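hey so i finaly got around to running the thing on histidine kinase from Peribacillus simplex. pasting the sequence first so u can double check i didnt mess up the copy paste, my clipboard has been acting weird all day
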Amino acid sequence: MVIILFAMIIFLVIINVFQYLSRRKLKQNLYEISGKLSDIIKYETSEKVLMPTDQQAIQQLLIQINRLLDFNQKVIADYVKTKDSLRKLISNMSHDLKTPLTVILGYVEKLKLNEMITEEEKKVLMVRLHEKVLNLTGLLNQFFDLVKIESDDYVIPLSKLSLNEVCRKNVLEFYDLLLAKGLQVEVDIPDQHLYILGNEDALNRIFNNLISNSIRYGSDGGVFGLTLREGDGAVSVEIWDRGKGIAEIHQERVFDRLYTLDDARNPKFQGSGLGLSISKRLTEEMKGTIHLYSKPYEKTSFTCIFKQITY
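ok and heres what it spat out for the 3d tokens, dont ask me to read them lol
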């Protein structure tokens, strides 16, 4: 009996010692985790909290802490990216507003101060002034449209639409201009109706922008094309030309807000850098995607892909 009692006492002592050492180790681990977190916050590093331990509770805590640190790094990276994007947006917007405003001011001052100009010269200046004001108004409208489209509460109503009719309508609107440019027109639209859930106004805006861009920048290829096809449960609209295309260095950024190619800075082309951004966002609002392919003087195309509906 004495032996059993003595054994129980020893067992309890061992348990108490083990619990004491375990609590001490846990306390040391927690202090070490706290110190590492403090250093990460103080020096703003992207390190993780790493610690060899066989305690499952500490292991789970480290996993969650490192997940939180990863999320924090992503938030910081997104903030820096957004801040940089906003800075570039303001810089580009300032440039694109300053140029037409300077020209408008020049025309106004010439009309106001120069009493020697003829009535015919005044008419010419007024026409140019009117064009610049319209360009400026169009740029501002596009900018505010993009802001509205990118807002979280922006929703466009969707309904069943035949892409065949929308494509035909948009090509017909540009047909006279295409012929005036001397372009060969190649349109491939099947007789069978291909339906999607879309918004006709949004589609018209997308195709209007893509077609006008193709005419503006791809006319040197002598061909304009639009192809409507189906496959793998999707419907695609490809608008293409055989012009000089878009250099590979620019291809990943053409959909960025206010990103323009060198040609778009040429007054002859008057690109705003907003049309493709708006087209991309509107396409995404209709659960679609838009893709660019460009090989100079062979084929440059923008392809919009939407989910096909058959009901």
